[in-house]
Design brief:
220 residues, Glutaredoxin, Glutathione S-transferase Yfyf (Class Pi), Chain A, domain 2, Omega/Tau-like (chains A, B), 2 domains, homodimer, alpha+beta
Chain lengths: 220, 220
């Protein structure tokens, strides 16, 4: 097809990893560019001058930023293994939950773990949001039903990053006792071949979190 | 078709008005429910238990929340007068700008006008964001080209509400001198028949803003 696909990401960014996961699910070859988040590269600034952040997908020299927009674009451009339903209502529900996960859950979970703002309130909110997802998932294997869909991909932070992060900072947010459905889902999710091969190494991630925790404790 | 369409909104909510505008553009009859934002009605809580806010679209008893999700659903369900392009890249660009307007612009503009957080910084950010939109619009009549599209609808706050609000709080953000393209666009936008008939009365809106300003000044 002569498609040239580039992904600008960072090894520990769940947003970039979600873009890569979907390209892999659809069998779309791409070239990966690791960005140094402390120094914005000229290419990143060229391709995403508005947000200046990863991930960016560049398809035949046309750039797209913002992972939820990118994921929808990929699904509409390469039709194999669709991650969004065709039915407009079911699709709207996926977009709704994706927005909820990105805007509400991840914000609360990040604050709960790093205590940037009101930590106790953030913990409470995080547990509320996880409960909401627990009820939405019910006894389904994945949010997408029998197979991984848009919401699963978007929830990758909860499926993998959160369990590593909560261990480092000493919180019990996503546990088997509190959220059995979601906990089981996270095990299923990270053990899918395409997801598994596309995750950052757990030791490297916890090492980064430990170092970050030590440096933020030292500066308090 | 037997379609039953309900919209839960609030008279001064640009998000609810955007949903109504698109239904009107597509000739979809709907029943409107005005919500009292201080008392969440049982119906609102039933239909949007996650966010508990307007707008909500209920189509044949199936509820959808979050205006960007609702607008996309409407466009996919009722095909007349499409507001999103068919081409996946052009569509992705619309979704990107819509997100930018909702998340970055409106947040900064609201803070600039009401001074909730760092007012000076918010003013600076607002001007930056308006400049970004000015450059994106260029000499096009609408963001959608010759006719109103998704981005125009989502930018309705900038087209109408902002000019009323900045007048009340005594700021000059969107002016003809600073942003001639965007200023001209806002005139064109509010004078389109379907948009015009769907806006809140300007006097009522400025009256509300004046009262809100007086009460927040008194409580300082």
């Amino acid at each position: 097809m002569g498609d040239e696909v580039k992904v600008f990401g960072h090894w520990r960014s769940p947003f970039g990893r979600s873009v890569e996961a979907v390209l892999k699910m659809k069998g779309v070859p791409y070239e990966y560019f690791e960005e140094d988040l402390s120094i914005k590269s000229p290419l990143l600034l060229k391709y995403n001058p508005i947000y200046k952040r990863v991930p960016v997908l560049v398809h035949n020299e046309k750039p797209i930023g913002e992972s939820l927009v990118i994921l929808q674009y990929i699904d509409e451009t390469w039709k194999d293994n669709p991650i969004l339903p065709q039915d407009p209502y079911e699709k709207a529900m996926c977009l709704f939950w994706a927005k909820f996960i990105h805007e509400k859950c991840m914000h609360a979970l990040w604050n709960a773990c790093w205590g940037l703002e009101d930590k106790e309130k953030a913990i409470e909110e995080s547990l509320d949001h996880l409960k909401t997802l627990e009820n939405e998932l019910k006894d389904k294997r994945f949010f997408g039903g029998d197979k991984i869909g848009f919401v699963d991909i978007v929830a990758n932070f909860i499926g993998f990053w959160l369990r590593a992060l909560q261990e480092v900072v000493g919180l019990e947010l996503l546990t088997q006792e509190k959220f059995p459905n979601l906990f089981k889902w996270s095990d299923e999710f990270v053990n899918c071949d395409i997801i598994k091969e596309n995750l950052p190494p757990r030791d490297k991630l916890t090492g980064y979190y430990q170092a970050h925790l030590a440096s933020s404790s030292a500066s308090k």
